[in-house]
Amino acid sequence: MIKEFYRTAILIFLVLTVLITGIFIKIKTEKELAYQKKRLSEFRILLTEYRNIKEELSKIDKRTGGKALIEEINLLLHTTGLKGKVRSLKEAQKKETSFGIIEETELVMERLTMNELVNILYHVDQRHSLSISRISMKRSFDSPEFLNLTVMLSGLKGR
Fold first, then answer.
1. Do residues 152 and 132 make contact, with C-beta atoms less than 8 angstroms apart?
2. N or C, fewer C-beta in 10 Å, the chain?
3. Comparing 104 with 40, which gets the higher pLDDT?
4. What distance in Å separates the CA atoms of residue 147 and residue 159, rounded to the nearest whole number?
């Protein structure tokens, strides 16, 4: 009789242990599932952002026609009529990022009037493929009404 009682007690204890362990495993897996669903939604958001950035890069490439940055700047100088004021135009560096290649070019211009300066800055601002990284303006040594301009222009290219 006592042996049966111990058997029953051990059996109940084992069943309760298995049951409690199963409940803890179920709770843990539900928490893990909720965490993984949250991560999945974050990855989906990142994926849509990545696709939007990729689409913007392809639009920029279509606008520039795949031209090099120096060609784009030469076209800009030609449309503004300031090609004769350029002292130098040289490629500075290329930085590779996760979403494309950033090309930088240094443009040095001399003897600009204030109107010409505003004109070139306006045209750079209107082009979505160009941005100004750094700008430096100094009065011309020859004549104080003229300005010397040094601009670091950058452009983004897709891979």
1. yes
2. N
3. 40
4. 37
> What distances in angstroms separate CA 61 from CA 20, 53, 64, 69, one per listed residue?
61, 12, 5, 11
Strands 131-139 and 100-112, by their bridges, are unpaired
CA distances to 19, 63, 136, 153 from 121, in Å? 74, 19, 12, 11
How many H-runs (helices) and E-runs (strands) does the chain carry? 3, 4
Of the candidates 123, 37, 52, 141, the one whose C-alpha atom is nearest the C-alpha of residue 151 is 123
- Indicate whether this model's pTM tops 0.70: no
85 DSSP 8-state letter = G
Phi, psi (deg, nearest 5) at residue 130: -120, 145
Q: Match 């639009």 to its residue by tokens.
A: 59
Predicted confidence (pLDDT) per residue in 83-114, tens digit: 888 888 888 888 887 767 788 889 999 988 89
